[in-house]
Amino acid sequence: MTTTREHGAAVEFDGVSKWYGNFQVLRDINLSIPQGSRIVLCGPSGSGKSTLIRCINQLERYQQGKIIVDGIHVTESHRSLDSIRREVGMVFQQFALFPHLTVLENCMLAPIHVRKMSAKDARALAIEHLEKVRITNQAEKYPSQLSGGQQQRAAIARALCVRPKIMLFDEPTSALDPEMVKEVLDAMVALAADGMTMVCVTHEMGFARRVADRVVFMDGGQIVEAAPPGEFFDSPKNPRAKSFLGQIL
Ligand code: ADP
Ligand code: MG
């Protein structure tokens, strides 16, 4: 069922559990993400971070509980799927641009097919977002002609062209050479400054300190700590969070 709510969280997890076969990957996730807020999700590899955010835009299904995205109950119906994909943009670790299309064409694709925009309007929108991530001069190139950092910024621009209300990032800088990490983080900081609701899986703790309202730490499919960044980094309460920070900082 689809309902619309005037107010409320951008994303709400209510007792969500998920299994891959017999393996329980998410355990009773309760998380409320207010509109305009920025969540950084961290935790050891295999703790369920990717699975959690992929449930938000229905790349994964869940078996128990409820996820509400901007008033839409995330179910398996096509109606919910179509609405969710319009509301939620996602940027992955691997850049996932279409290799046979130029950067500009990559950005124009969804506005034309999903938003039913004219090519002219889609082009203007694409250029606007390519300017925001500062790669307008790469618009006519193919992904393989770009650096990793440029490709990732193009992927951010492409996601923004759908005009999502929520942006999900799954380790967007992990596959980048160190000198390119900053340009991608800068684009994400600018997006946060624009007021976008963001859920970012990242171990870039400088970014988390600067941008996050709340750091959510997962371990073994559970949220074991959630706190503002200052509190989380300076005095983590959970022993597993403490030892995790010891390893990465
Ligand atoms: P993270 O992003 O925190 O590294 P993931 O959400 O990718 O964690 O994975 C959590 C756990 O679920 C891991 O143990 C992983 O092996 C397992 N897993 C992920 N995807 C699948 C899948 N499609 N089928 C079975 N197990 C999976
Ligand atoms: Mg992951």
From TrEMBL:
It holds the Pfam family ABC_tran. Keywords: ATP-binding, Nucleotide-binding, Transport. It comes from the Bacteria. One of its GO terms (molecular function) is ABC-type amino acid transporter activity. Residues 11-245 form the ABC transporter domain. The keyword Phosphoprotein does not apply. The keyword Nucleotide-binding applies. PANTHER family: AMINO ACID IMPORT ATP-BINDING PROTEIN, PHOSPHONATES IMPORT ATP-BINDING PROTEIN PHNC. Belongs to the ABC transporter superfamily. This is ABC transporter domain-containing protein. It comes from Rhizobium altiplani.
